[in-house]
Design brief:
The protein has helices at residues 13-17, 28-42, 54-64, 76-83, 93-105; strands at 3-5, 73-75. The chain is mainly alpha-helical.
Length: 107
């Protein structure tokens, strides 16, 4: 499995750039909305419309997380193991919050 690099500086750059702010100030509600948008963008390509499958999570990690400047390297299996609390093979938005917490810890 390839390693994924969790880099908080590049995560959701496309979403953050839409804010068009000279100085980036964001409320917690704004941040939660952006996280929700990223989740929804990748969730639901299969029969589970409100969760991420391993393939969907892989696409999300490949597209939204950059290798440049990262210090955290995990395989897809390791990420799934850390996030999938109920071991159903799907990542819910609540479980996805763990990934966001892991990324925030790197700040």
């Amino acid at each position: 499995s390839p390693a994924y690099f969790l880099n908080t500086t590049s995560f959701s750059h496309s979403y953050l750039s839409r804010l068009h702010c000279p100085t980036l100030t964001m409320s917690l509600a704004d941040a939660a909305r952006i996280v929700g948008e990223v989740f929804k963008k990748y969730a639901g390509e299969d029969q589970h419309k409100n969760s991420l499958s391993p393939d969907e999570l892989k696409k999300l990690l490949q597209a939204e997380c950059s290798k440049k400047g990262s210090t955290c390297t995990l395989t897809l299996d390791e990420v799934m193991k850390r996030l999938d609390n109920n071991k159903d093979g799907q990542i819910t938005i609540v479980e996805f919050g763990t990934l966001i917490g892991m990324m925030a810890k790197q700040l």
